[in-house]
Amino acid sequence: MGATVRAGVFTGDGKWDVRELSAPRPPAGGAVLQVEAVGLCGSDLAQLHGGVGVPGETFPVVPGHEIVGRIDAITAEAADAWGVAEGDRVCVDEILRCGACAACRSGDPECSGMHVYGYTLGIERESGCWGGYAEQMALLPRTNVHRLPNDIPAAELTMFEPMANAIYWVQRSGVQVGDTVVVQGPGHQGLACLVAARAAGASCVVVTGTSGDTARLEAARALGADATIDVEAEDPVACLGEITGGRMADVVMDLAAVTTATIPLAVTLVRNRGTVLLAGLKHFKPVEGLLTDLIVLRQLTLVGGAGFTPASMRVAVDLVASGRFDRSVLVGDVVTLDTLDEGIALLARSLPGRDSVHVSLVHGS
Ligand SMILES: [Zn+2]
Ligand SMILES: [Zn+2]
């Protein structure tokens, strides 16, 4: 029997286990990554319980799509195409585009034949190590990797992926220098949006949450939020009016998970002709209390945000590596495969008395 590696595996029914899988070998034209750390994403919980809606997602699967590691072995073709060598530290763009469909040929990122590491390549396929919950993973040709600095803890670098989303959504919202931006929902993705809005030149960023979010709102202030609002304890419309001298927000970004109450609220927090970006998923629940006449009469722009682009990922990698914000505030808790149950419980916010802004799984010593 050949060498094995350990990997967390999701079976799609709310259960997970740690398995020994055969160690991957570099696919033709690809490479093997020694995974150092993977960020646990809020969507990993939905995946654990049966799926997030990624086209082609499969089970059992090694999850994990916020992947940082070192090139362990690489084919000459991949070394040439990716510009990296054995030992280099990289992050992996989880989207693997086919390169052959009409979208790919025209440079449109909406590939119709894409694979997504951590979702669509199951454990039946070759070694099965296609996600960051494995100690090593195989990388196919056409993978996008970005080189990362060596002097930053791998767990901190995993935020490149939520940051790539945040940068794309800030771009989609049209945030301008000097803008006031409200971020609703102080989870890891919301906090990344705060950082990205600031990087885009927003002069005032306000983060809102609920009474259960005390630690997260504190993290928002540590990351430079001008103000935070607990919408259960304070009237957010009055608070924002006071902060902005009645101008209200140029852009409201909704990152609140599950609750739909933030959507009618966003429409009242934004100024006339302002923009509301919706990126927090609501499990397909309809929105109650939304007066669309307000969108019409106040001439608002409504924008959806999902995922990132190769360009926003490049900007995110530079921003995370630059130290232009305090990464240590965003890193949260670090677990190993031996303590993955704790990590998943933190992700589900089900550990009494503990709340984490983010969880990373770190492999190795
Ligand atoms: Zn993610
Ligand atoms: Zn394609």
Which helices and strands occur, and which strands form pairs?
Elements (H helix, E strand, L loop, with lengths): L3 E7 L5 E7 L8 E10 L1 H7 L17 E9 L1 H7 L6 E4 L2 E2 L5 H4 L9 E2 L19 E4 L5 E3 L6 H4 L2 H14 L6 E5 L3 H12 L4 E6 L4 H9 L4 E4 L5 H9 L4 E6 L7 H8 E9 L13 H6 L3 E4 L5 H13 L4 H5 L1 E3 L4 H8 L11 E4 L3
Parallel strand pairs: 10-11, 10-13, 11-12, 13-14, 14-15, 16-17
Antiparallel strand pairs: 1-2, 3-4, 3-8, 3-17, 4-5, 5-9, 6-7
Helix pairs in contact: 5-6, 5-11
The chain binds zinc ion (2 copies).
What would your notes on this structure say?
It is a single chain. By secondary structure, the protein is an alpha/beta fold. The protein has 2 domains: 176 residues, Medium-chain alcohol dehydrogenases, catalytic domain (Quinone Oxidoreductase, Chain A, domain 1, Alpha-Beta Complex), CATH 3.90.180; 140 residues, Rossmann fold (3-Layer(aba) Sandwich), CATH 3.40.50.720. The protein has 13 helices and 17 strands. It is globular, with a radius of gyration of 21 Å. The mean pLDDT is 95. One zinc ion binds next to helix 5.
